[in-house]
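Notes continue from the previous slide.

Worked example: a multi-chain complex. Inputs as given:
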Amino acid sequence: MAKATPASSSPVSPLRIGLIGFGTVGSAVARILSESALSGLELTMIANRDVARKRVEWVSSSVHWTENVDELLAPEAPADLVVELVGGLEPAGEWVRRALTAGKSVVTANKKLIAFHGPELEALAREHSCQLLFGAAVAGGIPVIPGIEHGLSGDRITRVEGILNGTCNFILSAMESGAEYATVLADAQRRGYAEADPSEDVCGWDARAKLAILMRLAMRIHVAPETIEARPITAVSAVDFAYAAELDCTIRQIARAEQTGVGVAAVVGPMLVPRRSPLAWSTGTENMVVTTGQFGGEVVFSGHGAGGHPTAVAVVSDLVNLAHGLGRAPGAFRAEPVSVEPEVPHYIRFLVRDRPGIVAAIAQALAAEGINLNAILQKPGCCAESLPFVVTVEPCRASALRRAVEAIAQMDFLLEPPLEMQIVEK
Amino acid sequence: MAKATPASSSPVSPLRIGLIGFGTVGSAVARILSESALSGLELTMIANRDVARKRVEWVSSSVHWTENVDELLAPEAPADLVVELVGGLEPAGEWVRRALTAGKSVVTANKKLIAFHGPELEALAREHSCQLLFGAAVAGGIPVIPGIEHGLSGDRITRVEGILNGTCNFILSAMESGAEYATVLADAQRRGYAEADPSEDVCGWDARAKLAILMRLAMRIHVAPETIEARPITAVSAVDFAYAAELDCTIRQIARAEQTGVGVAAVVGPMLVPRRSPLAWSTGTENMVVTTGQFGGEVVFSGHGAGGHPTAVAVVSDLVNLAHGLGRAPGAFRAEPVSVEPEVPHYIRFLVRDRPGIVAAIAQALAAEGINLNAILQKPGCCAESLPFVVTVEPCRASALRRAVEAIAQMDFLLEPPLEMQIVEK
């Protein structure tokens, strides 16, 4: 019988922490550990490139700084566990494997590593009787992962959806007030919210890695992150927000996965979100996750999904758990491909040179794929030479719609490829 | 050194569960345990009054039903842990004490017991090397307690506020559309959302017990629940919603605690909430908790705070944790009285027989307490014989305002006592 015993409130000696990566999150972790003096935890080593430039005075003088990760990972190093905050698949993956193989628990915020190699690394941790914790890997400072693992394990979660990328949410919520994508992206880059190459964020690759992690923890389904369709937000324009407002919606990058009777659906991309939906609440760099359970219904988690300090809170909370002997429960899951396209209503925006017969041609192309037109929206005051207008269609499969839109894209009245987005039903 | 070791994924024999209380939540717990067949958990005993009437066919025939709680609590009973879902201080408290003293872990949804006796019962659990889990005691199906304990322990939480009573939220959000309190209360009673005697809910006693629990877990401050000021929602009227709308607010029963530099503030009561605040999002019987941390900022948890199945999800999640050997970390806290009144803006609604000089008299009474008047709102179309109007005042202490309002209440133009409410600043 597995019997829970209370963890001791005063461990004999504290857990010695070796920190790899002293960037925004790493320095915030060190800051919290220094300021809060949490019992049972002691920062002993910090590894970072160019350590002379990184070294700060407020870290205790007893901490050993090194440029050499091997020194931190050495079996005799004064580090009982390793915090990995470098990110990316390699060399972070190799470091995490070495730590786990040496029986040292690892705390990481590395969503990419966990999305792609989580199951393998968890098995390695089990094999070597240590723990792999990654509460910071999804939605930073929002306790979604501990909430799901410790508070919703009694439910059967059938859907997970959310706003998992703060950069996209910053861009799209700034576009609500009429700005164009390129302007807002430049502003986000100036503020440090977006990388010089923003592809990872705006193309949805970051969000789908996080969605894959949530699917494994909440829905107990493991999918290869790259098999989740990710559509970029780059084609969304100010005019789309104007039309979305007419539909009482806004636009957000939504990550969405669902377990239906016939299979698994998962997609990331810009979507129309009704203003009354919780998903419309998040602005700026905030994140949000909504889970739907068979027994408990919808649960909403929201807050600061990124940033040094919020992410560091999740890392330090994992450390506190380890100090109290509280790890993660072994989570059973099954590998399953993304196999289902849910039938959902869509929004399609066209930019055309106006002439008679356009609506008829579009309606015909949609009908050829069995798609029913729902509404046609056209704001007054646009010139016939470059006329944006919007069609909404009744629930249909994304692939059928895409075939119809590809056929329409060949038509001579179009000035640019149409933009289609799912409409979230709530 | 405290070192986390991974829990075994296949315990040798399952935890045998003795369930006390087969009401709405208890039967939902049994339902989930029956349907989900969670590994490591086995329902073996159910105790309830009038068991013949309660017995259901869908519970496994191997479960032993009894009317006698003593039988379930006997040392030799086939129950390794006890789930207490009866509620109230006694006899539930005695049963929980007996189970813990016998070294049997307890899972309970009993907010009153945990608010009033949590520290004593936790000490008892520690003494007897077992666990006391109560994830369902606050906000039912929303994993606020596990989120705070496992995901925010790395932060220093300075404020907790929320909507902790579904009955009041149902009543107040229904009143938004113009209905009066008495009508909506009767509807809530018909639907089973409110008790025949609704005092526990509408007077704020239920919410303050939950607030006391959250304060202990999140802010690490233990206050006696009865020392938290609780103001009833009973005096809120449809006209208050009309005036609140003019201030771009709605009205909710808010529970709010804050740790300031000089002490602890805590209060429960109807308050004006800006429409843009997360606290305005919850409608119907939903609950919401917003924590504010020094490092991670605001985190919002929302969902179904009550009801059989959502609450049962929290209970079963606690059972899953125990089956995996994951208990609660010992939480340090200090006893501290509620000692501070934050200075906040207020709303005061008067019902008067109109005559010249009323505003002057009110302004004078407020000025005598050093309170600055902010705005005067008076909707057109009311008759002078029974004229409601509203005054908002700049941030002041509730006690100073109350003295001013008591002075005003003596004035001859008043038709009923004024109603004052805090305005939540966001």
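Summary box: Chain B has a mean pLDDT of 93. Chain B touches chain A through 79 residues (CB under 8 Å).
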